[in-house]
Design brief:
Elements lengths: L1 H9 L24 H17 L11 H13 L2 H33 L1 H15 L3 H12 L3 H25 L3 H10 L3 H35 L8 H10 L3 H29 L9
Helix pairs in contact: 3-11, 4-5, 4-7, 4-9, 4-10, 6-7, 7-9, 9-11, 10-11
Subcellular location: Cell membrane
Family: Belongs to the binding-protein-dependent transport system permease family.
Protein name: Sulfonate transport system permease protein
Amino acid sequence: MTTVVSEAVTLAPPEPLVAAPRRRLRPGKPIPFGRLVGVATVVGIWALASAVGLLDPRKLSAPWTVLQTGIDLARDGTLEANTAASLHRAVLGLVIGVAVGTLLAVLSGLTRLGEALIDGPIQVKRAIPALGLIPLMILWLGIGETFKVVLIAIVVALAIYVPTHNALTSIDSRYVELAEVVGLSRWGFLRKVVAPGALPGFFLGLRLAVTGSWLALIVVEEVNAVDGLGKMMYSAQDYGQSDVILVGLVLYGLFGYLSDSLVRLVERRVLSWRRTLAN
């Protein structure tokens, strides 16, 4: 008995467990207006190169020249009229394209018949460049405003279809089984399972769509347009006015950036329940 007690007394206490140091793998806190840092850097390099004479002003005007040209065009009303015409085409094509693309994605993603009838033709169309459709669209619709809006809508519909369809078809089957076990109705299943699962893909498609509307706009305004930023730029090309061309490009970039930022803001509000690296 004495031997057992003495052995128990001489046993060393267990060493305390030391937790391994936690590695921080997150990218860090978001930088306020961080996305503008890169833009400001590019503009700064452009201004510096223009100031020291590295850039030929006949081919690439200086930033201050572009700014003054934009002010002059705004004063005589040219910029306002062309911007209004471009915005009308882009917004109308965007609204129609988003509605059509989302509807096709839902029908194709949630029904086998819809997938069989819709997804194949959509994938074939994705392989056909939008520019390749211009001769056929002109033959069908003429060279007026209808042709321009329809072509923008087609580009937008394809941009939003693919991410939305992928999000719908990638919903975890365990959630579907759980919905069946708890007896959710069809509407409840769509509202509580399908919609939350598909919204991230939809917003990604929406971001691609707003950018696609501007990319398609500059193409369609080359064809028999009487107004618009694209028409203004192509007319300036004939006279070698690089400053006017850059004014149009700056506005395209500004509208694209603002529309993308608006979609991102709405996405953060709607999907506030998600925790991501961007938060």
